[in-house]
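Quick one:
INPUT:
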Protein backbone atom coordinates (compact mmCIF):
# COMPACT_ATOMS: atom_id res chain seq x y z
CA UNK A 1 0.00 0.00 0.00
CA UNK A 2 1.23 3.49 -0.82
CA UNK A 3 1.67 5.89 2.07
CA UNK A 4 0.46 9.18 0.63
CA UNK A 5 1.70 11.16 3.63
CA UNK A 6 5.20 9.77 3.11
CA UNK A 7 5.11 10.72 -0.58
CA UNK A 8 4.01 14.27 0.19
CA UNK A 9 6.50 14.65 3.05
CA UNK A 10 9.46 13.72 0.87
CA UNK A 11 8.13 15.75 -2.07
CA UNK A 12 7.63 18.83 0.12
CA UNK A 13 11.19 18.41 1.43
CA UNK A 14 12.40 18.94 -2.13
CA UNK A 15 13.28 15.43 -3.29
CA UNK A 16 12.89 14.82 -7.01
CA UNK A 17 10.26 12.51 -8.44
CA UNK A 18 13.03 10.22 -9.65
CA UNK A 19 14.49 9.96 -6.15
CA UNK A 20 11.07 9.36 -4.64
CA UNK A 21 10.17 6.69 -7.16
CA UNK A 22 13.40 4.82 -6.52
CA UNK A 23 13.32 5.03 -2.74
CA UNK A 24 9.60 4.34 -2.25
CA UNK A 25 9.24 1.79 -5.03
CA UNK A 26 6.43 3.53 -6.90
CA UNK A 27 6.10 4.77 -10.46
CA UNK A 28 6.62 8.46 -11.27
CA UNK A 29 3.09 8.60 -12.69
CA UNK A 30 1.77 7.48 -9.32
CA UNK A 31 3.76 10.24 -7.64
CA UNK A 32 2.26 12.82 -10.00
CA UNK A 33 -1.21 11.48 -9.19
CA UNK A 34 -0.69 12.38 -5.53
CA UNK A 35 1.40 15.54 -5.87
CA UNK A 36 -0.82 17.20 -8.50
CA UNK A 37 -3.62 18.06 -6.01
CA UNK A 38 -1.03 19.52 -3.63
CA UNK A 39 0.36 21.70 -6.42
CA UNK A 40 -3.18 22.77 -7.38
CA UNK A 41 -3.79 23.75 -3.75
CA UNK A 42 -0.78 26.05 -3.86
CA UNK A 43 1.85 23.91 -2.14
CA UNK A 44 5.35 24.14 -3.51
CA UNK A 45 8.18 21.72 -2.79
CA UNK A 46 11.41 22.86 -1.30
Amino acid sequence: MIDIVEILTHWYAGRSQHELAASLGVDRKTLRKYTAPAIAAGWEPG
